[in-house]
Automatic annotation (TrEMBL):
The modification 4-aspartylphosphate is found at D60. Keywords: DNA-binding, Phosphoprotein, Transcription, Transcription regulation. Coiled coil: none annotated. InterPro entries: CheY-like_superfamily (IPR011006), Sig_transdc_resp-reg_C-effctor (IPR016032), Sig_transdc_resp-reg_receiver (IPR001789), Tscrpt_reg_LuxR_C (IPR000792), WalR-like (IPR039420), WH-like_DNA-bd_sf (IPR036388). One of its GO terms (molecular function) is DNA binding. PROSITE patterns: RESPONSE_REGULATORY (PS50110). Residues 9-124 form the Response regulatory domain. This is DNA-binding NarL/FixJ family response regulator.
Length: 224
């Protein structure tokens, strides 16, 4: 459930009415049900109206044939939205790129309610969900062990290391605490995906020092 035990809400962006209708049925049949807002292929409905406050964005990566919109995915992620990419693409490269950009889950449209509904619940809580398609992609990924953090993730991480609370980070960066949590969750997911767990703040500090995200001098200055 969303924070405070409220009904989870999701907004779906997909240009196929049959897909959206199927997802709506799965959400209505879930226990407890999930509130679904259908934005069709209107990306603007994710940013305005009821879709702007949805806990989760279910994002069809390719609203225009043969033109995956990684730029819009990046925009959603950098604004702090929690995204499930729901795509017809089953190739490993696309899945890995979406996770690198900050999606908390990647599912192909062959993966039905048994994966999409749990993914929505996990992502609403700021957690990653690994469906079989993504699990296979991660197993095949031979990229180096340093995760690819976005500039915004690094900014939030550095601010968190220098602050005593996430509330202070939110105030400094003019974002919500929920957005701070989302960015930190994504950083943890990225470290986990390269086999370097960072479940605590101290573990994240250690990883960041090792990867040059922050220096020991900067940490010492922040603690003064």
């Amino acid at each position: 459930m969303a924070a405070g035990g409220e009904l989870i809400t999701a907004v779906i962006v997909d240009d196929h009415a049959a897909i959206a209708a199927g997802v709506r049925y799965w959400c209505e049949q879930a226990d407890p049900p999930i509130g679904l807002i259908d934005a069709g292929d209107r990306l603007g409905d994710v940013w305005a109206g009821p879709g702007a406050d949805a806990d989760v964005v279910i994002f069809d990566l390719e609203l225009v044939p043969r033109k995956p919109d990684f730029g819009e995915l990046r925009r959603l992620v950098e604004s702090g939205r929690r995204v499930v990419v729901y795509s017809q693409h089953a190739d490993n490269a696309t899945a890995i790129k979406c996770i690198d950009l900050g999606a908390l889950a990647y599912l192909t449209k062959r993966e039905g309610p048994g994966h999409l509904v749990p993914a929505i619940r996990a992502v609403a809580a700021g957690q990653a969900y690994t469906a079989p398609s993504l699990s296979g992609a991660l197993a095949a990924d031979d990229s180096p062990g340093r995760p690819r953090l976005s500039p915004r993730e690094i900014e939030v991480l550095r601010a968190w290391f220098a602050a005593s609370s996430k509330e202070l980070v939110a105030a400094k960066l003019h974002i919500t605490v929920k957005t701070v949590d989302t960015h930190i969750a994504r950083v943890r997911v990225k470290y986990s995906n390269v086999g370097r767990e960072a479940r605590t703040k101290s573990q994240l500090v250690t990883r960041a020092l090792h990867d040059g995200v922050i220096t020991l001098a900067e940490l010492n200055e922040a603690s003064m």
